[in-house]
Structure formats: structure tokens, C-alpha cells
Amino acid sequence: QVQVHESGGASVQPGASLRLTCTASGSNINRLYAMGWYRQAPPNERELVARIVSGARDTSTKYADSVKGRFTISRDNADNTVYLQMNGLKPEDSGVYFCELGVTTIQNGLVLDADYWGKGTLVTVSS
């Protein structure tokens, strides 16, 4: 069983910075092949903020147009952790931020790839 935990959400003023952290824990984790941050602010649907996908040969990173140049997604493979550094926050960045992790587990010789989601961390940007 894999658990995903996000942290770092807070209430801040416009222009501030925050760093969100997402960590996978559990037994039999081999590696994280995809890591993403999504946000949802009702009544909008959940939207992609940033995502890293590690393929067999290379790694690709994608950002929503609205956060390019302000947000940076990064990873710490040793700790099964992904970060989202958010600078120059705007009120429209407010919402619940969810972490999605693509995790490879190996148990009794069985290799399994599956996606796991955290419960979210709230970011509020207002003056």
C-alpha cells in the first residue's frame, strides 16, 4: 500500500512564495515514474499545474501556461518526494493542490505501476 501526503499549503498575500511538498510512503516502492501537481478551486474542475514524467530514456516536464516562469516542480528520488516551488503567487492560484504520483512497486517479483493521489493541501492567496 502506498500513501501520498501533501504539505505546505497556507494563506499568503499576493506576490508571496510557497513550497509544497509531496511524499510517497509505503513498502515495496521501487520508483516514482510520474509526479504531478493539480489544483481545484470550485466551481472549476481539477486542472494540471505541473507534472514530471520519467520515461525510459528521458524526463519531460509540463507546466500550465498560467504558472510558467513562476512555479517550478522538482523531485528528490532518494526520498520519494516531489516539490512545487510557487513564486509570485496570485489570487487566481488559490485552491486545493493535489499531488499525483505514478509509483512502481515490486512485491514477490510482481512489478506494478499505479497512480496514487493525496488528499490535498489548501493554498489561499488574498490581500
Structural write-up:
With 127 residues, the protein is mainly beta. The chain has strands at 2-7, 11-12, 18-26, 29-40, 47-54, 59-63, 71-76, 81-86, 95-107, 110-117, 121-125. A hairpin with a 6-residue loop joins β4 and β5 (47-54). The chain starts with a strand and ends with a strand.
What's a quick, concise take on this entry?
The protein has about 130 residues and is mostly beta strands. It has strands at about 1-5, 10, 20-25, 30-40, 45-55, 60-65, 70-75, 80-85, 95-105, 110-115, 120-125.
Write the layout of secondary structure elements.
Elements: E1 2-7, E2 11-12, E3 18-26, E4 29-40, E5 47-54, E6 59-63, E7 71-76, E8 81-86, E9 95-107, E10 110-117, E11 121-125
Parallel strand pairs: 2-11
Antiparallel strand pairs: 1-3, 3-8, 4-5, 4-9, 5-6, 7-8, 9-10, 9-11
Strand content: over 45%
Structural class by helix and strand composition: mainly beta
Number of helical elements: 0
Dominant shape: elongated
Rg on CA atoms, Å = 15 Å
Which bin fits the share of residues in helices?
A: under 10%
Name some characteristics of this structure.
127 residues; mainly beta; seven-stranded mixed beta sheet; four-stranded antiparallel beta sheet; 11 strands; elongated
